């Protein structure tokens, strides 16, 4: 049974929001959402009945400034593992697995670097977001590059753009918002989204919830994705399982292949014909099972 809209207070006074799905005493798996997004995203991909049958407990966390989690000024990528440990300790979880999706990928990798002793397995789905490597961004779709780069290149325009696209459009014109998002996606993703009205409604709801505090969280995460991570991939010992669609244009497969070849202990699986959304939508149960077995 799902437990939604949960919060804990952290040592610095911030609130950290999360949802739980699946078996209450099941094998724990932390879910890291993409960006701009929030904990609600997990409901678009994770099957509740599968979690119950397989005795899995998914804990989907809002990152600072998203959903129910308070904004954290000047945070770095390596601040995130501290929040994860605070929640794990509060829930009495000594070890756990992590599934990080899309732009949640770097936050999963940061945990693999900073808290390997607490992680059973780390999975990255469509999330090898190496936007700090200029040699790997040539095939990124223009809308994703705009979202990532605009806060650095034109901060004022970025705030206006994010407000229009992420706050106003999903509330006042959700169909136009979905159509705009679809226009930048490969065919595999468009087919999945266009055929599933429930997914479309859930996606709009996810964005509205992510932006409940405004755009500061999304703005700051864009900057984090083009900022040095503060550690090297070569130094990560945590076992990583990486899944990526070869048609992905949000985070091109070149990034995933580069990340997997650089990590010391990575098993990568690449899917011809799958995109950024279609891969996870079709194979989420398979990925989750791999992380908790």
Describe this structure in words.
- This protein has one domain: Rossmann fold.
- Helices cover 44% and strands 18% of the residues.
- It is built from 12 helices and 8 strands.
- It has an 8-stranded mixed beta sheet with strand order 1-2-4-3-5-6-7-8, with helices on both faces.
- The mean pLDDT is 95.
Short description:
The chain is an alpha/beta fold and about 290 residues long. The protein is built from twelve helices and eight strands. It is about 45% helix and about 20% strand.
Helix content: 40-55%
Could you please say which CATH topology applies here?
Rossmann fold
Name of the CATH first level: Alpha Beta
Counting DSSP E segments of at least 2 residues, the number of strands comes to 8
| Rg computed from alpha carbons, rounded to a whole number of angstroms | 17 Å
Key terms:
globular, 44% helix, 12 helices, 293 residues, Rossmann fold, eight-stranded mixed β-sheet
Note the topology.
Blueprint: E1 3-9, E2 15-22, E3 27-32, H1 42-45, H2 48-54, E4 56-61, H3 80-91, E5 96-101, H4 105-114, E6 119-125, H5 142-153, H6 155-172, H7 174-183, H8 187-194, H9 197-210, H10 216-225, E7 240-245, H11 253-262, E8 266-271, H12 278-292
Parallel strand pairs: 3-4, 3-5, 5-6, 6-7, 7-8
Antiparallel strand pairs: 1-2, 2-4
């Amino acid at each position: 049974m799902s437990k939604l809209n949960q919060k804990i207070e952290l040592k610095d006074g911030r609130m950290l929001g999360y949802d739980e799905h699946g078996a209450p005493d099941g094998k724990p798996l932390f879910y890291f959402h993409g960006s701009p997004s929030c904990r609600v995203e997990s409901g678009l991909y994770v099957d509740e009945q599968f979690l119950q049958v397989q005795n899995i407990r998914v804990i989907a966390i809002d990152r600072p400034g998203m959903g129910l989690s308070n904004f954290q000024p000047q945070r770095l990528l390596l601040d995130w593992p501290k929040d994860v440990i605070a929640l794990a300790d509060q829930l009495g979880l000594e070890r756990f697995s992590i599934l990080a999706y899309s732009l949640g990928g770097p936050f999963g990798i940061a945990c693999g670097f900073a808290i390997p002793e607490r992680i059973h397995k780390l999975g990255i789905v469509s999330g090898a977001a190496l936007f700090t490597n200029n040699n790997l961004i040539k095939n990124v779709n223009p809308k994703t590059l705009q979202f990532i780069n605009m806060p650095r290149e034109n901060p004022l325009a970025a705030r206006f753009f994010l407000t229009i696209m992420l706050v106003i459009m999903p509330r006042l014109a959700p169909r136009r918002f979905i159509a705009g998002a679809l226009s930048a996606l490969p065919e595999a993703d468009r087919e999945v989204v266009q055929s599933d009205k429930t997914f479309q409604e859930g996606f709009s709801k996810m964005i509205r919830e992510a932006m409940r505090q405004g755009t500061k969280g999304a703005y700051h995460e864009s900057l984090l994705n083009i900022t040095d991570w503060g550690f090297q991939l070569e130094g990560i010992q945590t076992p990583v399982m990486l899944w990526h669609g070869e048609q992905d244009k949000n985070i091109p497969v070149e990034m995933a292949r580069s990340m997997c070849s650089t990590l010391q202990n990575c098993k990568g699986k690449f899917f011809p014909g799958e995109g950024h959304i279609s891969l996870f939508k079709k194979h989420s149960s398979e990925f989750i099972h791999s992380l908790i077995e």
